[in-house]
Write a structure and sequence with these properties.
This protein has 249 residues and is an alpha/beta fold. It folds into three domains: 121 residues, Response regulator (Rossmann fold), CATH 3.40.50.2300; 51 residues; 65 residues, Arc Repressor Mutant, subunit A (Orthogonal Bundle). 63% of the residues lie in helices and 10% in strands. A five-stranded parallel sheet has the order 2-1-3-4-5, sandwiched between helices. Helix 4 links the parallel strand 4 and strand 5. Helix 1 crosses helix 8, helix 2 runs parallel beside helix 3 and helix 6 crosses helix 7. The radius of gyration is 22 Å and the shape is elongated. The termini are far apart.
Length: 249
């Protein structure tokens, strides 16, 4: 399956390509396009299956690309990635053939989910019972390994090697099975372990951060708050308050 990432900003275009390559092996070829003119050449030459497209591009705009590609029958499954949130932009994009419209900035994991959904819509993955069972088994083994080694500098490629598949394929299986990307699952495991240390009350926050696998206390606090809704210090103080109430009772 061929995917095109079209954006005139090098950092965005290259960042998306690297993230997709790291987290899935669903796309045999990922083609970059720097402007609308280059994109049209790619559409005619390579006939990609999926297109991730920025609306505002030099030489030929994203909307103009969709209009021409639709007329000539070469428009693939198109996901628009735009900085314009006005309704008229979205409406025009859909009218030109876009299947989805995402606003910048967008989480990489959310974009990947849309791309995998598009891939499934075009070429559904086999869903026989034995295949599903085998895939679940791989994911469970990966999770077991993550839970045993969460405190290490654990990478997706390390876990994939342990369970005997490619990093991209493991990322795809995790995303479909758990609805989350690898790093989010790993952070949840680490935060869960951090809560146990916070409940004990013996260690300082920075000590706990390093103990569960984070290399930076500020980043640990940010991730903790995102998952638990409160900071580690707040969690610890609440826990202490509950213990006092329990003792009085």
């Amino acid at each position: 399956m061929k995917l095109v990432i079209a954006d005139d900003e090098d950092s965005i275009r290259n960042g998306i390509i690297k993230y997709v390559q790291l987290h899935t092996d669903r796309f045999a070829k990922i083609i970059p396009a720097r402007n609308g003119e280059e994109l049209l050449e790619i559409l005619y030459r390579d006939r990609p299956d999926i297109l991730c497209l920025d609306i505002q591009m030099p030489l030929v705009t994203g909307t103009e690309v969709m209009e021409e590609a639709s007329k000539t029958g070469v428009l693939p499954y198109t996901i628009v990635l735009s900085g314009y949130g006005q309704f008229e932009y979205c409406q025009k994009a859909i009218r030109c053939g876009a299947k989805d419209y995402l606003l910048k900035p967008v989480r990489s994991s959310d974009l990947l989910e849309k791309l995998l959904y598009a891939a499934d819509a075009i070429a559904p993955v086999e869903t026989r019972d034995e295949e599903l069972a085998a895939k679940r088994g791989v994911v469970e083994r990966a999770l077991d390994y993550m839970e045993e080694n969460y405190y290490k500098n654990l990478r997706l490629v390390d876990v994939a090697e342990k369970v005997g598949i490619s990093a991209g394929y493991l990322s795809t299986l995790i995303s479909r099975s758990k609805g989350k990307v690898f790093v989010d699952l790993l952070n949840e495991i680490r935060v869960d372990r951090a809560c146990r240390y916070l409940d004990q009350g013996y260690l300082k926050t920075y000590e706990i951060a390093y103990k569960v696998g984070f290399q930076d206390e500020k980043y640990f606090s940010k991730v903790f708050k995102k998952i638990k809704g409160i900071s580690p210090s707040k969690y610890k103080s609440q826990d202490g308050f509950i213990e006092k109430l329990t003792a009085k009772a």
